[in-house]
Every structure is written in C-alpha cells, then in structure tokens.
Specification:
- By secondary structure, the protein is an alpha+beta fold.
- The protein has a single domain, classed as Transposase IS200-like (Alpha-Beta Plaits, 2-Layer Sandwich).
- About 35% of the residues lie in helices and about 25% in strands.
- The chain has four helices and six strands; from the N terminus they run βββαββααβα.
- The protein has helices spanning about 40-55, 85-100, 105-110, 130-135, and strands spanning about 15, 20, 25-30, 60-65, 70-75, 120-125.
- The strands form two sheets. A four-stranded antiparallel sheet has the order 4-5-3-6, sandwiched between helices.
- α1 packs across α2.
- The longest helix is centred in the middle third of the chain and has 19 residues, at about 85-100.
C-alpha cells in the first residue's frame, strides 16, 4: 500500500488517541470600558491564574501578555474544546478570582463586569506562529 502523504520528521502536531491535531489560536479580550486596571502586580497575578486554568483544563499557553486594558494569548488546545467554551473558562474564572482578591475593582468597573463581552480569536498556522509569538511578546513595548 502506498503512502498518501508525508509528514515532516519535525512537526507541531499533537497525537491523541485516534486523532492528530495542531490547533493554535491568538485570543484577545479587553476590560470593560477599556479601563486600565490590570497593572501594579495584577498583570502578573492574571498570568499566574491563567496558567493555572490552562493546566487544569489541559490547554497550553504558548505566549501571553497582560496589558493594562487587554490580554493577548496564543493557546494550543485539543479539538474536543469549543473555542467559545475555552474563552468563557478563562474570562469567567479570572474575573471571579480578581473580584474576590481585589474588591476595589468593582468601584472602578460598575455593573459587576470586568470584561467587555466581546473577544477576538484568530487561527494561527505553522507559518504565522512565530510572528504571533513576537507580536504578543512585544505588546508592552509598543
């Protein structure tokens, strides 16, 4: 039987039971009213919490930067997860924890919402992955 395709020896594919995948997403979401509240150590706390959530739900964060008013992430996930569910997990759990740890945020962001309800998701190919990683890494210098 002849091969139908050749896979390169080095690839970014992940092998699961009965499937092979490579799914990376560049995700961006903003604080409500684009208020610059993710600063003074809160940015590092966000990163710590997001890495913990990723570990709990078996997502892989390949790159991340927390800006005062937005979060950029490059995430690799299994095909079983819907992207909208992954974002709900990140945004919901992070908001809950930040409001518990920093009740002063509720004064700054009335209505009990930390995040703008919208978000941006862009699929990332193997060819554009390095560009996206560089873009996220240089966010704070812009």
């Amino acid at each position: 039987m002849e091969k139908l395709y050749d896979l390169p020896i080095e690839n970014n594919l992940t092998y699961g039971r009965g499937y092979v995948y490579s799914l990376q997403y560049h995700i961006v979401w903003c604080t409500k009213y684009r208020k610059k509240v993710l600063c003074n150590g809160m940015d590092e706390k966000c990163k710590e919490l997001l890495y913990g959530l990723a570990k709990d739900y078996q997502f892989t964060i390949l790159a991340m930067e927390v800006m005062p008013e937005q979060i950029h992430m490059l995430v690799d996930c299994k095909p079983q997860f819907m992207i909208s569910d992954m974002i709900k997990i990140f945004k919901g759990n992070l908001a809950r924890r930040l409001f518990l740890d920093h009740p002063e945020l509720k004064k700054e962001l009335w209505g009990g919402h930390l995040w703008n309800p919208s978000y941006c998701v862009v699929t990332v190919s193997d060819r554009s992955r390095q560009q996206v990683e560089h873009y996220i890494a240089t966010q704070k210098t812009k």
